[in-house]
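Narrative summary of target 7.
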Amino acid sequence: MSPASPVTRYHLVLVTLHWLLAVLICIALGMGMFSLSATPNSSPAKVDALKGHMVAGITILLLMTVRLVVRAVTAHPPPAQTGMAWADRLGPLAHGALYLGVFAMAGSGIAMAVGAGLPQIVFQGVGQLPADFHHLPARAVHGLVASLLVLLIVLHVAAALYHQWVRRDHLLARMGFGPRR
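Modeled conformation, tokenized:
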């Protein structure tokens, strides 16, 4: 690649992290919204479900941190130009909101876990789960941010599909595994 050649795809590490994190985030959100919320804290299965959710959350936090570092030190394509000024301004804001949402989920999850004594209960088998988590302020934040994150993800996917199938501008290829130029 010559120095003047524009980068047309994101770095392979960013692409890999993007798709890996997409899967992990969807799994963690699904676990929280369906499995954890449906399982009472009195059930023995709740501790195992919490363990999986917490491990997924910690993994997501670590991978998101790596993603931010890799993004800061690698070349990436220029900002997308859609021909719609409002969309060109909204795209970077939406991406920033996704990053912020994921970090807010991790932070509120950690705060909730610490507030409820979950590290000792879940990973060391010491103590019992509280009757519920609703008395913890971080629980309300975690639930609200989860809903906002789901909305942002749906909008992100809808925008990507719009670019791919309606505009046919190959914007989705920037986050693909094909050749790099």
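Helices lie at 12-38, 45-73, 85-116, 118-124, 137-167.
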